[in-house]
Specification:
α1 packs across α9, α4 packs across α5 and α11 crosses α12. Helix content is 42%, strand content 14%. β7, α5 and β8 form a beta-alpha-beta unit. The protein has an 8-stranded parallel barrel with strand order 1-2-3-4-7-8-9-12, surrounded by 6 helices. By secondary structure, the protein is of the alpha/beta class.
Length: 374
């Protein structure tokens, strides 16, 4: 196992920066993960923030995390083309050790507004995802990875997710960000055991681990349970630290463990202190499992052969279904309403397998889509 670096997700956010500052002053932050596309609409990035990025970039300790690409959009969009051009410019300015993106497609008509939701695991979506990953690699020319989803509609999706990730990444020889809070959401929302779940992931492809916090939400569709949501607005639960202890030794190519929290969860002194304490706990787990003498290979997750990206892969039927699903979720007055409309939509009796979707996860999807709707 290579030396594992303790990192934070550090973006241009006052509260995040205030929480990270004490750790940086103590030289504890060994790398930073930057959501580079969150600044695509910012006209002028402060010079001091560029200096911070450059300092980590010069040491090859800067990793990039995309949010808004919408990997599985059935239609190749102008916004995706612009996103890639921006990435190419950003990757020329900063030396990223790798680039990652979220799994799923974004709801919402405005490309930069929405929430990442799951897609059917079919040959069509596999080909679209592979095409988009190739384009990301061509724009940045560094290893490319994908983050596992926190959200699924059914237990079958949960069990197929790891294998589908591996298939997606194969043409670019990419890697996985194993987000352990996302995993925790799936474990709790579908009552599946950790040992069963972790065995479904290709752990030799894990180069990065995320830990974070989230929230619980009551469910009208399933009053007997609470739904775990990946809201990134609270401290890291003890269960996620336990998952880190159980997982870290199973990932032979792991290089980064990254702690994430949104700025809206770091407003108070107490929340920032909890962030500091959580980082120290993460750091200690990393230290116990890291081989300081082995820096690992930087070429391990680069493509093994050349490939072409001439014509973008599209499927307009899938795209129309995505638009229809987004509209249903964003306009539903209740989960019962969403379920009723779905049964009369083009998604019924299709590869989406909506007939297997859990009502409480449809309810959750409605809440996610409406939260992000602008």
């Amino acid at each position: 196992m290579p030396k594992i670096l303790s990192a934070v997700a550090c973006n241009l956010d006052t509260n995040i920066l205030a929480a990270c500052l004490p750790l940086m002053e103590e030289s504890r932050v060994e790398a930073i993960e930057w959501s580079f596309d969150a600044l695509y609409k910012v006209k002028e990035v402060p010079s001091w923030f560029r200096e911070l990025l450059t300092a980590f970039s010069d040491e090859k300790r800067l990793i990039g995390h995309g949010v808004f690409f919408s990997l599985f959009s059935g239609k190749w969009l102008p916004e995706q083309e612009n996103w890639l051009k921006q990435l190419e410019q950003t990757a020329a300015e900063f030396r990223f050790d790798h680039i990652t993106e979220h799994f799923g497609f974004m709801t919402g008509k405005d490309f930069h507004h929405g929430a990442p939701l799951n897609i059917p695991y079919t040959a069509t979506t596999l080909n679209i995802g592979r095409d988009r990953l190739k384009r990301i690699y061509n724009a940045c020319r560094v290893p490319v990875g994908l983050e596992n989803l926190a959200f699924s509609y059914s237990l079958d999706e949960v069990k197929r997710h790891g294998a589908f990730l591996e298939q997606l990444l194969e043409p670019v020889n990419g890697f996985i960000i194993l987000d352990l809070h996302n995993l925790y959401c799936q474990l709790r929302n579908f009552d599946i055991a950790f040992d069963e779940m972790i065995a479904l992931y290709p752990l030799d492809r894990v180069r990065e681990i995320h830990i974070s916090g989230g929230s619980w939400e009551d469910s009208a569709a399933a009053p007997e349970r609470s739904i775990r949501r990946d809201t990134h607005d609270d401290a890291v639960p003890s269960e996620v630290f336990q998952l880190l202890e159980m997982t870290i030794g199973k990932c032979p190519q792991l290089k980064y463990v990254v702690m994430e929290q949104l700025g809206n969860g770091l407003v108070t002194d107490a929340s920032r202190r909890a962030f500091y304490d959580d980082f120290l706990q993460m750091e200690e787990i990393v230290r116990k499992n890291s081989d300081e003498s082995n820096t690992g290979s930087s070429d391990l997750f680069l493509p093994l052969s050349s490939f072409s990206t001439d014509i973008a892969v599209e499927d307009m039927a899938l795209y129309q279904q995505q638009l229809e699903l987004s509209s249903i979720l964003e306009s539903a007055v209740s989960y019962e309403d969403a379920m009723q409309v779905l049964t009369h939509s083009s998604l019924a009796n299709s590869d989406w397998q909506i007939e297997q979707w859990e009502p409480y996860m449809i309810e959750t999807a409605v809440k996610i889509a409406q939260k992000w709707k602008k």
